[in-house]
Amino acid sequence: MSLPQQSVYVIVPYPGPSIESDRLLLRPVTDSDAPALFAIRSRPEVAEMNSPNIPFKSIEETREWMATKVFRNGPPDIIGRSFNYAIVDKSIPETEERVVGSLSINQVDPFPEIGYAVHPNSWGKGYATEAVQLMLKMWWNLARRAVEGEDAYLPQAEKAFALCEKMNAGSRRVLEKCGFKVVGDFQEDGDDLFIFALERP
């Protein structure tokens, strides 16, 4: 199956909004988060299920990856912006590292794709599910643009997508709990991936 194609409906603000629950705070990633994100992305068990499947070896490599979250395609007002968030565990004392994961809209063109990772020490607590739900709440509530032409009749069918390795049972459960459904599959760089989609409520 080919990858999805969808017009860009969203208007991405800068800076992006923040949102929190009783347990978590989602706030835009800053450069100072690089060491915490390196601590996550350098773990083999995290890298195994995230492109490029190789543990990061340095904070500088992490910063290079962070830069890939800036949108390079789409409408002119989108380019140069991002929707990249740190997952902050509010129960951790402020004197310690509170960033336990990250999630983002990796791209908006040719389709809005969600990606996320959580430090293994915080697995099994439902943080990924809760964070994805919080991000979706922000994403769906952003302002939308008028779409003209052949796609103009499609706003009611706007969707968010996620690519998930078929063997990543934990991530599949996260997406299913958030309401995503498998709509196809795809192969990329030797990885077998499910394509998940969720329609805007």
From TrEMBL:
It comes from the Eukaryota. One of its GO terms (molecular function) is acyltransferase activity, transferring groups other than amino-acyl groups. Signal peptide: none annotated. Residues 24-201 form the N-acetyltransferase domain. InterPro entries: Acyl_CoA_acyltransferase, GNAT_dom, N-acetyltransferase. Pfam families: Acetyltransf_3 (PF13302). This is N-acetyltransferase domain-containing protein. It comes from Penicillium vulpinum.
